[in-house]
């Protein structure tokens, strides 16, 4: 048990985030925004003070970007897995025109990411930091308070924006370079005057080389799938298919385990170089950035605080998205703590394809997401559901909204803004509303090998409306209060452009 604790030990002084913060705050370990750059004195004027603050801000931003692109074995394995999946699913018979369109599409998509990052930066600086600094001319105390409150959130937003631009630019550059290189190499090999082209024509024939880049698509994954499907013996075919899929997934997970172990071992080597207890530190922890008032302050030697910090974060992660109960003196708990019976609940299923069959070109099943909306309003129509359930970008960020009916609504999205927008769109179908400060971004959920992937578009596929009514007799299901309910489930498609025929009343 002691060895297990050492494996997860950490020294706060060696954390990269702490080093960045110390470099920009003069050694302070408490996460605060220094107001010294915004206060005037007899030696410095307002403009000079603002310039000093901007210099410190840029230094912190640059150090944060360096951290975002820093190396780790886990990140390297993620690149290897992503590159292998791209190569396996790449259409090697793609035409030159399709390559040009894909490159243009990648560049156009990067323009959106870059514009969003620039917009966030301008918004936070122009509407957050600059007005707070301008207040310094007539109220220094208020300006200092505003910079302290706004500064940290602005830094986090700008670092997130910079990270998204760097990652998107890297992916766009690698994919575009590969497509451009493949197009030109193929063109050179198809040239009859090229010695390598002559050799290829001798191996595969001139007709195949001349038709390279036309006709049906061909992928490595598809070729493997076809080879497996062509096995005549059903037992052997199932054995090979399941063995290949499970072996691939196990290899990916094992790779992440090995890479994580290397990173952990390197971290342990750094820990071994420190003293037994370390220096005294005071740490202020904000477990949830969306709730800045919820802070935990710890003080003590580093070695003592290591397990304490881990326990605090683990406890918050375990209980942060769960209701553990509320003590209400003098009031029946059931009336307040247990949400009422959901008479109308709608579950919408989104899929990676716009229409059936629900299989991708490589033969795999289309990925799907499900979102449940409670307290569906009366008089619902198919057109309203179709409009609210329009496409969105799914991802690994879990966005949770606490509702005024005692329940919560969750959406997996590519970004926090995307998830919040989708929740608001779907809540138009419900009588429930989001509580003030009820939105929580749980960040990137630790994914398995199946989910370790880039964000992707999902489209409305179908929906199920569960309709409960009070039973007039003894037939039905009894709840904890002794009431008897009858259930009716209405399932309908959302992928068509028009309302399906013979659709029951969604009342």
Write up what this structure looks like.
It is a single chain. The radius of gyration is 29 Å and the shape is globular. The protein has helices spanning about 1-5, 15-25, 45-70, 75-90, 95-135, 140-190, 195-205, 205-210, 220-230, 235-270, 300-320, 335, 380-390, 415-425; strands spanning about 280-285, 295-300, 345-350, 370-375, 390-395, 395-405, 410-415, 435-445, 455-470, 475-480, 485-495. The strands form three sheets. Strands 3, 4, 5, 9, 10 and 11 form a six-stranded antiparallel sheet that branches. Strands 7-6-8 form a three-stranded antiparallel sheet, covered by helices on one side. The chain contains 14 helices and eleven strands. About 15% of the residues are buried. Helix content is about 50%, strand content about 15%. With about 500 residues, the protein is an alpha+beta fold. The termini are far apart. A hairpin with a 4-residue loop joins β6 (about 395-405) and β7. The longest helix has about 50 residues, at about 140-190.
């Amino acid at each position: 048990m002691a060895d297990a604790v050492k494996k997860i030990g950490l020294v706060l002084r060696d954390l990269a985030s702490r080093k960045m913060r110390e470099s920009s705050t003069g050694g302070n370990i408490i996460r605060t925004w220094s107001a010294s750059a915004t206060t005037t004195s007899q030696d410095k004027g307002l403009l000079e003070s603002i310039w000093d603050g901007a210099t410190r801000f840029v230094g912190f931003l640059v150090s944060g970007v360096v951290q975002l692109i820093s190396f780790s074995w886990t990140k390297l394995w993620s690149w290897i897995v992503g590159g292998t999946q791209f190569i396996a699913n790449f259409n090697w018979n793609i035409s030159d025109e399709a390559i040009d369109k894909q490159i243009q599409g990648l560049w156009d998509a990067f323009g959106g990411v870059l514009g969003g990052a620039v917009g966030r930066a301008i918004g936070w600086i122009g509407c957050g930091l600059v007005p707070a600094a301008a207040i310094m001319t007539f109220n220094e105390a208020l300006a200092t308070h505003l910079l302290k409150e706004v500064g940290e959130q602005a830094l986090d937003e700008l670092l997130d924006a910079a990270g998204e631009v760097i990652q998107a630019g890297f992916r766009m550059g690698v994919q575009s370079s590969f497509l451009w290189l493949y197009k030109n190499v193929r063109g050179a090999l198809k040239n009859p005057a090229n010695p390598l082209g002559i050799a290829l024509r001798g191996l595969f024939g001139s007709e195949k080389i001349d038709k390279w880049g036309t006709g049906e698509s061909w992928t490595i994954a598809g070729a493997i799938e076809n080879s497996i499907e062509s096995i005549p013996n059903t037992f052997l075919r199932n054995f090979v298919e399941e063995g290949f899929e499970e072996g691939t997934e196990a290899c990916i997970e094992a790779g992440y385990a090995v890479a994580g172990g290397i990173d952990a071992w390197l971290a342990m080597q750094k820990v071994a170089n420190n003293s037994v207890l370390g220096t005294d530190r005071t740490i202020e922890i904000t477990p949830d950035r969306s709730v800045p008032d919820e802070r935990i302050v710890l003080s003590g030697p580093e070695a003592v605080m290591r397990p304490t910090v881990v326990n605090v974060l683990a406890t918050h992660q375990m209980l942060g998205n769960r209701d553990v109960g509320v003590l209400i003196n003098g009031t029946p708990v059931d009336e307040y703590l247990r949400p009422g019976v959901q008479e109308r609940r709608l579950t919408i299923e989104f899929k990676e394809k716009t229409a059936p069959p629900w299989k991708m070109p490589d033969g795999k099943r289309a990925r799907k997401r499900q979102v449940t909306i409670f307290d569906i309003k009366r008089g619902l129509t198919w057109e309203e559901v179709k409009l609210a359930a329009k496409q969105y970008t799914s991802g690994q960020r879990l966005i949770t909204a606490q509702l005024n009916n005692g329940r919560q609504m969750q959406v997996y999205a590519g970004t926090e803004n995307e998830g919040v927008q989708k929740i608001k769109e779907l809540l138009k179908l419900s009588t429930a509303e989001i509580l003030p400060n009820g939105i929580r971004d749980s960040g990137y959920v630790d994914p398995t090998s199946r989910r370790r992937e880039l964000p992707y578009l999902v489209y409305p596929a179908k929906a199920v409306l569960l309709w409960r009514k009070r039973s007039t007799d003894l037939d039905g299901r009894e709840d904890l209060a002794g009431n008897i309910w009858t259930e009716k489930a209405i399932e309908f498609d959302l992928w068509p452009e028009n309302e399906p025929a013979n659709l029951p009343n969604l009342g």
